Amino acid sequence: xxxxxxxxxxxxxxxxxxxxxxxxxxxxxxxxxxxxxxxxxxxxxxxxxxxxxxxxxxxxxxxxxxxxxxxxxxxxxxxxxxxxxxxxxxxxxxxxxxxxxxxxxxxxxxxxxxxxxxxxxxxxxxxxxxxxxxxxxxxxxxxxxxxxxxxxxxxxxxxxxxxxxxxxxxxxxxxxxxxxxxxxxxxxxxxxxxxxxxxxxxxxxxxxxxxxxxxxxxxxxxxxxxxxxxxxxxxxxxxxxxxxxxxxxxxxxxxxxxxxxxxxxxxxxxxxxxxxxxxxxxxxxxxxxxxxxxxxxxxxxxxxxxxxxxxxxxxxxxxxxxxxxxxxxxxxxxxxxxxxxxxxxxxxxxxxxxxxxxxxxxxxxxxxxxxxxxxxxxxxxxxxxxxxxxxxxxxxxxxxxxxxxxxxxxxxxxxxxxxxxxxxxxxxxxxxxxxxxxxxxxxxxxxxxxx
Length: 451
Prior knowledge:
CATH class of the largest domain: Alpha Beta
């Protein structure tokens, strides 16, 4: 059954426009609280379920945090506030504090005027479809307030940052450190600004931080993983060994080599895989998405490492990993899941696993990038006036012709955008000129079907 409010990663939109309004978010807190109360059958008599609330530093977080607190406490749930913290930190702390759920107020890599609400279960994982449907059902009912004696309370968790910093450090080997490395960290003026620098500094690295002065309105503004140019420039200027870019809520990571070369999530995932493979510690295969570069698939084939593709979105990568009982997966954008370390995609932890692999191999990031040179990939977004049948003879003929020309050295993917009236045409292969030509040919056919 289709969901009314929840998307693939919670509920997101422009602040002040439905559903990202104080009134709706208060009702969402109440509805979620009622569901979480109903799920508890092992609490002591008179005890209240507890829900952890974290946020990134965008200015609307204060307003939405207060709205959630009001809704949750009205439903008889205790609200535990951490203040600004990365999304994966809330996943971890929800488990560590034995909370019944975790909530993150963030729009990730979006501009400051957007915001969103995402949930974690008590196990630190995304909510199941069943629980999300239950929350939506409660949202459609009138909001009430339980008896005053049963209202929940609110509390600040003052040591949240310290707990998470120690957790991140614990995923790096005790017999290894980062001494001798000069690292530039780009915190995107987001949720990692106060936790990422201490993690890498306390492990021994010389840390230069940029994008670490959030003011509520500069999150992701010309910094972070969506704008890596700032990090590339800083790495070269400071003659650093490498740079690490996070996104606004700390679940995406990209890295920059000493020469300014940018490495995406596919390349970073491969470096982590190689490190585990070399030690005989790789469990099963690797999960990517429909957009994962074909070079990664081919590189894994050389080592006879299984590879599977999920739909775009980290929750679908997680589903595939669980289905296959694998540990590692990710997206080109920098969402990397290391399930042997954390239940959720975590940019800081993923970066630490890359550094572990580099220290183990004795190679630099630039040297490791040569292990997996990405294939040229062209993505064209075709705006459509009406719904397009991607199975039409004209479109399928163009796709077949492209696949015939690419043979086994390339890939064609067409998919409709889930949020915009657009068809995304993606072609990749080893010949850049051919890839560009084929993508333009298919896009032209798609556009002709829209007229």
